[in-house]
């Protein structure tokens, strides 16, 4: 379904926005299946193509913005690639595999004066294009634009991409990752065909195969992109004056929250209780869902929660943790909320995207993470 255009949709204030989740475009998902709209949008001089190589975006690191071209600036020899894609997208042809993966991201509807128009819809069309296997495009882009880099790490993305473009990058990466990793049908093993401007997959099998995916009337993650829900929980003691700091063997440089995948037939609340106990040995009695964040590594939705421990089942003051269940954590400790406020207020971000107070060995994740947003929520809500 398409997103609603809300007042303040294009606000990019760091105070209220969610990195990777600041809604910059109206996706107009109902127009993805309209080949006339897609054909006109992708050749519009107002369109913007965002390029990826191995799922890493091309970014102008001097201007700190996503690099874009359009049909007019992509070069005469490369326009044929776009023309062929338009034809094969309309025909839903298997030959589309010979071309770059392309996904229609949506319209930037904030610019009304100079924009693409189609019926009652208008805006700047955005497309994500994977050029990993297309050397002509790679050569043109890299030779003519020496300030470009493909950003392959979250730290580099944090440094060079702002809030508004972070959502555009994330949507493109998540769709292109799904398209590039789902080349064969889960039902029968036949090749899949990206259709509807790279938003769905169609099994290429004939009727004789009787493919259960192709013949099903119910949508599934075999033909539509899949998002994996992940909980992330900031744990408070029963008095609500201390917060749990944890470090894992994978993320040794900073303290963060407890996180894990939500399993089949599990509610968010029950998943929080299970993960907190499995990782720390603590029993949680209350769970509050606070906010969420898309996480394009590869395709997760982080669901941020607050968990309050049960004073009847935890020896909280003695820090009676048990880290030996699944052995993910190397350290867990209670920290007064006042200390957390000090880190948030006076801490400085280093090159590893960690906020740390001078003299402290470890810090917390930066403000572009939901872990930081949960910590900040705790300070604003419980630091009385």
From TrEMBL:
<protein>
    <recommendedName>
        <fullName>NAD(+) diphosphatase</fullName>
        <ecNumber>3.6.1.22</ecNumber>
    </recommendedName>
</protein>
<dbReference type="GO" id="GO:0005777">
    <property type="term" value="C:peroxisome"/>
</dbReference>
<keyword id="KW-0520">NAD</keyword>
<dbReference type="GO" id="GO:0005829">
    <property type="term" value="C:cytosol"/>
</dbReference>
<dbReference type="InterPro" id="IPR020084">
    <property type="entry name" value="NUDIX_hydrolase_CS"/>
</dbReference>
<dbReference type="GO" id="GO:0046872">
    <property type="term" value="F:metal ion binding"/>
</dbReference>
<dbReference type="GO" id="GO:0035529">
    <property type="term" value="F:NADH pyrophosphatase activity"/>
</dbReference>
<keyword id="KW-0479">Metal-binding</keyword>
<dbReference type="GO" id="GO:0006742">
    <property type="term" value="P:NADP+ catabolic process"/>
</dbReference>
<feature type="domain" description="Nudix hydrolase">
    <location>
        <begin position="225"/>
        <end position="357"/>
    </location>
</feature>
<dbReference type="Pfam" id="PF00293">
    <property type="entry name" value="NUDIX"/>
</dbReference>
<keyword id="KW-0460">Magnesium</keyword>
<dbReference type="InterPro" id="IPR015797">
    <property type="entry name" value="NUDIX_hydrolase-like_dom_sf"/>
</dbReference>
<comment type="similarity">
    <text>Belongs to the Nudix hydrolase family. NudC subfamily.</text>
</comment>
<dbReference type="InterPro" id="IPR049734">
    <property type="entry name" value="NudC-like_C"/>
</dbReference>
<dbReference type="InterPro" id="IPR050241">
    <property type="entry name" value="NAD-cap_RNA_hydrolase_NudC"/>
</dbReference>
<dbReference type="GO" id="GO:0019677">
    <property type="term" value="P:NAD+ catabolic process"/>
</dbReference>
<keyword id="KW-0378">Hydrolase</keyword>
<dbReference type="InterPro" id="IPR000086">
    <property type="entry name" value="NUDIX_hydrolase_dom"/>
</dbReference>
